[in-house]
Amino acid sequence: MKQNYDVKSFFSYLGYPSGDRPYWCENLRSLSVYCRGDVANLEALLEPTPFELADDRFVVQIADFGNATPGAFYDSGVVIPVRYRDHVGVNYYFEYEDQPWSVAFGREVWGYPKHYGEIELVEGENGVEGTVTRAGKLIFGISVVPEDGYSNEAWADMTMYPHLQVHALPQANGPGFETFEIVSRDTSKDFTLKSKCFGPAQVELGPALSVNGVDLKLVEVLGGEYSVGDYACTVENGISTVIDDLLAGGGRVSDDVPGEVRSL
């Protein structure tokens, strides 16, 4: 083995930063469409996770991190309000990004369930629209037409932070997990909003938004918003906090009995 090898140097090989590295993005553009879902459907989607449903509404989003200091990327996904014990926030249930390094970074470091997708977010005369596709197939499409006086009352009370995610690392030689943590992350405290507008919105969901044969169902589109602001992932607020460790005490989550923690 190499002498005095610094394991942190492996991040340069992986091609993404460590989880304690702050970063910024000026003029972050975000398009969010707020929807009402079906409670039974959302609960069925959450069934494989440790989370409980906290609201019958969900959000479909696309964000342009083109000015991010680690490198430009797009982020998109479906956000579901959830509860974990005494913690209430949202879970990125489906998530797509357009850069391999940002997919790996968010997934491996913080537990976001990121997959690769081709993403667009376009401002036009008739509003703002965005699409997420892969191999020519639509994952989802959203749009909003800003309208003066349009009310966001139908979703203004939604809790959008913190993000509650499962940070899980499977065993390399078995059916269980070496790491299974619940993490919380809240970058909203360092976000500076520059502009925001509301309006009627449209959503098209593709068949890729499905887990265990359960497709995400849309009951009603409540409306949408388009915002621009300065994003910051600071050491104080952008770094995730472990709020629970399901393997604490040296156990492993095993597939032998679903959800069972087995001692080593």
- State the helix count: 3
User: Mind describing the biggest β-sheet?
Assistant: 8 strands, mixed
Instruction: Decide which structural class fits the backbone.
Output: mainly beta
What oligomeric arrangement do these chains adopt?
A: single chain
Please state the average pLDDT score.
93
Number of strands: 19
Shape: globular
Terminal CA distance: 28 Å
Give unreliable regions as ranges: 251-264
Query: Topology as H/E string?
Result: HEHEEEEHEEEEEEEEEEEEEE
Amount of beta strand: over 45%
Helical content band? under 10%
Please compute the radius of gyration using only Cα atoms. Answer: 19 Å
Summarize the structure.
The chain has 264 residues and is mainly beta.
